Backbone:
């Protein structure tokens, strides 16, 4: 950075984009002073003394911070307010390896504040200190670094005692554990801590509007939580984002065409606004608008700045007019504002109501399990359709087979399990859908050794000679030995010689019991090889299904919108474990 660096703080103006209701917190200590608004968050922007930037920023409604003589007065003449950005913190407190003599700090602070007050035209100026070295260093610190930290704290405390409002920038997540905790707590009593969060625009653009915005929000949330989780109040915390052009600086990073960068700038503003509303932080900062080197001389910067400002308020810059038809003006794409108050997630065009999750959680005993199961249902429904008619037929079969045809008993059993008829129908649909998908998945024939191992490992499983039509997957033959844990339970309870029509997830199957059940170990291996092979292929299809559904859920999650970006864990959940009496054979 060059010696002349400028920041702009946006005054509170009406916004185009809606946001969540902010937390009720005390405003930043500097709110309402030196021409700044009383509301939070305050938006601070990087400025530059160039006509193209002045035309955007030099107006009433913004406040510009500068460390160069003359520019603050010039911009105040336009109606702007000013704050101060200090590039020379190391000149005042020393470096992390060569700290300054602590006895010199008080005099330096007095001289510095006197000069800042004169430049800013305000007795209680905001002073931004760029930047604290080594915020993530764990304790114990070296003697030199410990003195550097002591100097930093003492200097900031002196600035605050003299009436200034210090803001300290940190480039990494702070280490606030152990002996470092008290240091950060003391710093927060005198200063605001602003975490730099520089996500390259190329990464955000590649991820697209949903995943890209989610990544931005989560990065900003994490930056805030690493500070506030340790007891530092949100009104003493801010975030800073980058709009630098140089590759590796976390800004444009070579993103082309320019219209893509303008769109990402819009997403950054929306993500920052969302997180500020959720957390109640004091400020949002940007930097990188300056053209302090050849690499940073970028004709797209004024337009990106216009897009950033317009996203917050059209009164600041008319981005659609300045940029033209290439500018995407949507303030909804990828935003949580698309979710209604009662919707937990939007998965494509399908909404997942929060009430449905709560209702199913009463059955599963765990909200996360219910959440994952319902998300799984929505995703799988995109690949396998089950008609309402088929579900109702399955329901009638369950009532007939498990409750002797008594619907009242069926409903009573659901009620006892904290379920309802709609919930049970959803579970039946899941079973039928899974069966449809499993039929399409490849399961390799088991080897001889696998069959022999199974036979030796499970001698107590029951087998029963049956005849079945149409041929079911769990038998592998029209006539053969059915194996328990794979075939429907009723196969082993029906009287010998009885023929019954069993409603299964594969459809209606006519089964006749030809002999009494016996144990697997009592039957020669040669007679049960086909049965075991069918069982092993069924298990393999089950494993393949789990891999298939988890993969699909992960893929779909890239375009799903969920409250607070709290997405369900992709899983393969069998809800019949909670409602076993609705399990189809």
Residues:
């Amino acid at each position: 950075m060059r010696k002349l660096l400028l920041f702009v703080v946006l005054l509170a103006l009406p916004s185009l984009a809606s946001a969540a209701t902010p937390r009720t917190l005390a405003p930043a200590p500097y709110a309402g002073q030196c021409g700044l608004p009383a509301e939070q968050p305050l938006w601070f922007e990087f400025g530059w003394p160039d006509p193209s930037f002045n035309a955007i920023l030099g107006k009433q409604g913004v406040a510009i911070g500068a460390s160069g003589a003359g520019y603050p007065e010039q911009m105040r003449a336009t109606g702007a307010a000013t704050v101060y950005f200090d590039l020379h913190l190391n000149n005042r407190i020393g470096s992390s390896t060569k700290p300054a003599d602590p006895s010199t700090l008080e005099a330096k602070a007095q001289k510095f504040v006197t000069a800042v007050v004169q430049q800013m035209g305000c007795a209680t100026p905001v002073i931004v200190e760029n930047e604290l070295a080594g915020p993530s260093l764990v304790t114990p610190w070296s003697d030199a670094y410990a003195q550097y930290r002591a100097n930093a704290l003492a200097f900031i405390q002196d600035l605050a005692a003299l009436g200034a409002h210090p803001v300290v920038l940190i480039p990494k997540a702070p280490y606030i554990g152990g002996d470092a905790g008290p240091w950060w707590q003391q710093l927060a009593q005198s200063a605001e801590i602003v975490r730099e969060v520089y996500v390259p625009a190329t990464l955000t653009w590649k991820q697209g509007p949903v995943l890209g915005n989610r990544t931005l929000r989560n990065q900003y949330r994490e930056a805030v939580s690493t500070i506030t989780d340790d007891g530092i109040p949100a009104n003493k915390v801010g975030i800073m984002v980058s709009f630098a052009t140089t590759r590796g600086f976390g800004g444009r990073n070579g993103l082309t065409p320019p219209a893509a960068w303008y769109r990402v700038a819009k997403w950054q503003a929306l993500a920052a606004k969302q997180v500020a509303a959720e957390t109640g932080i004091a400020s949002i900062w940007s930097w990188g608008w300056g053209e302090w080197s050849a690499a940073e001389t970028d004709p797209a910067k004024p337009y990106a700045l216009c897009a950033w400002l317009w996203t917050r308020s059209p009164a600041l810059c008319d981005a659609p007019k300045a940029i033209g038809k290439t500018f995407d003006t949507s303030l909804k794409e990828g935003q949580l504002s698309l979710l209604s108050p009662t919707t937990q997630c939007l998965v494509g065009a399908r909404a997942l109501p929060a009430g449905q999750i709560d209702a199913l959680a009463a059955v599963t005993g765990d909200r996360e399990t219910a959440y994952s199961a319902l998300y799984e249902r929505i995703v799988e429904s995109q690949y396998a359709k089950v008609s309402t008619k088929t579900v109702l037929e399955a329901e009638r079969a369950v009532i007939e087979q498990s409750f002797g045809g008594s619907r009242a008993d069926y409903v009573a059993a659901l009620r006892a399990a904290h379920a309802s008829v709609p919930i049970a129908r959803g579970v039946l649909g899941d079973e039928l859908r899974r069966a449809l998908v499993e039929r399409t998945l490849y399961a390799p024939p088991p080897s001889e050794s696998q069959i022999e191992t199974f036979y030796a490992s499970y001698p107590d499983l029951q087998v029963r000679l049956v005849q079945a039509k149409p041929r079911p997957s769990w038998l592998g033959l029209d006539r053969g030995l059915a194996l328990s844990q794979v075939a429907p339970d009723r196969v082993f309870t029906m009287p010998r010689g009885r023929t019954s029509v069993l409603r299964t997830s594969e459809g209606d199957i006519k089964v006749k019991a030809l002999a009494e059940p016996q144990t697997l170990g009592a039957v020669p291996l040669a007679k049960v090889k086909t049965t075991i092979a069918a069982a092993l292929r069924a298990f393999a299809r089950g494993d393949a299904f789990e891999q298939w559904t988890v993969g699909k859920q992960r893929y779909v999650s890239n375009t799903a919108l969920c409250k607070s970006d709290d997405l369900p864990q992709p899983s393969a959940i069998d809800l019949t474990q909670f409602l076993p009496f609705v399990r189809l054979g």
Notes: The chain has a mean pLDDT of 92.
